[in-house]
Specification:
globular
Length: about 260
C-alpha cells in the first residue's frame, strides 16, 4: 500500500498574535467610525446654516454676550473651532476677543483657544492620516508644504506660523503627518501665532475704546506687513523650502556617514 503523503499540520495563530490582530482590526474600525462621525457632524453643521451664522461679527458678539458669565468659555470654544473648521474666519474672532475682553485678557483667551484648536487639528491628522487631511486641505496646499513632512525643521515651521498670510490652520493638519512631537508642535504653533493674535486683539481693543487714531496706525502697520507677505510670499516660501530641504539632506548624509 503506497505511503500517504504526510500532511503538514495546520499552524494555528498563537493567542497573543490573534489578540494583536483583533486589536488592530478593532482600532481601524474605531478610527473609521470616529472619522465618519466627525465628517457627519461637519456636514450637518454646514447644512443647518450655523457656519453662515458665525461668519457675521455682530451675530458673534450677540451670541457671546448672551452667554453671560460663560462667555469666556464660549469664546475659547469658538476660537478653537475656527482652527479646525475653516469657514469661521479667525481674523473676526481675534478682533472680537479684544473688543469684548480688552487686550490682555483677549490675548490670553485667544491663545488658549488657538492652542486647543491647533492641537485638535494636529491630533486628528496624526490619528487618521492622509485620507482624513485630504478632506480638509486642498491638494495644491498639501503639495506646497509637502516638504515639511521629511524632517522636523522647527525654525522653518516657526517662521511659517509667524509670517502673515500663510495658511496656519491648514499647517496644523499638515504637520500632523510629519515628525514633530506633540510638545514641539504646541510650542512652535502657539509662540508663532502670538504676534498675529496680539495685532488682532489690539485692533478689537482700540475699537472698544474708540481709539481710532491708534487703530488706523495699527491697520497701516498690519497692511504693510501683509502687503510684504503677499508680494514676497512665493520667494519666502521658496527660501524656506530650500533651507528646510538643505538641512534634511545634510542630516541624511550625516546618518549615512555614521552608518
Amino acid at each position: 500500500m503506497p505511503d500517504q503523503p504526510e500532511q503538514s499540520p495546520e499552524v494555528l495563530p498563537l493567542p497573543e498574535e490573534q489578540k494583536t490582530k483583533n486589536g488592530t482590526r478593532n482600532a481601524v474600525w474605531l478610527r473609521l467610525g470616529i472619522l465618519l462621525g466627525i465628517l457627519g457632524i461637519i456636514y450637518l453643521l454646514h447644512e443647518s446654516g450655523i457656519f453662515k451664522f458665525f461668519m457675521h461679527k455682530d451675530r458673534l458678539l450677540a451670541f457671546l454676550d448672551s452667554l453671560g458669565p460663560l462667555s469666556f468659555l464660549g469664546f475659547i470654544a469658538l476660537q478653537s473651532i475656527q482652527v479646525v473648521i475653516a469657514p469661521i474666519p479667525g481674523e473676526v474672532t481675534g478682533i472680537i476677543g479684544g473688543y469684548l475682553y480688552g487686550p490682555t485678557l483677549g490675548v490670553i483667551l485667544s491663545t488658549i483657544g488657538l492652542v486647543i484648536g491647533s492641537f485638535v487639528a494636529f491630533s486628528l491628522s496624526r490619528a487618521f492620516g492622509r485620507p482624513f487631511v485630504d478632506k480638509f486641505v486642498s491638494k495644491p496646499v498639501l503639495e506646497r508644504f509637502d516638504y515639511l513632512l521629511h524632517r522636523k525643521g522647527l525654525v522653518v515651521i516657526f517662521l511659517l506660523f509667524l509670517i502673515p498670510g500663510f495658511p496656519k490652520d491648514y499647517l496644523c493638519f499638515i504637520l500632523g503627518l510629519g515628525h514633530l512631537t506633540s510638545m514641539e508642535f504646541l510650542l512652535v504653533s502657539s509662540v508663532g501665532r502670538l504676534f498675529g493674535t496680539i495685532l488682532l486683539t489690539l485692533s478689537g481693543g482700540f475699537i472698544r475704546n474708540h481709539q481710532y487714531g491708534r487703530l488706523y496706525i495699527l491697520i497701516a502697520i498690519a497692511g504693510i506687513l501683509l502687503g510684504a507677505a503677499v508680494l514676497f510670499r512665493k520667494k519666502a516660501e521658496h527660501l524656506l523650502k530650500v533651507w528646510h530641504l538643505g538641512d534634511y539632506k545634510k542630516s541624511v548624509k550625516r546618518t549615512n556617514s555614521n552608518g
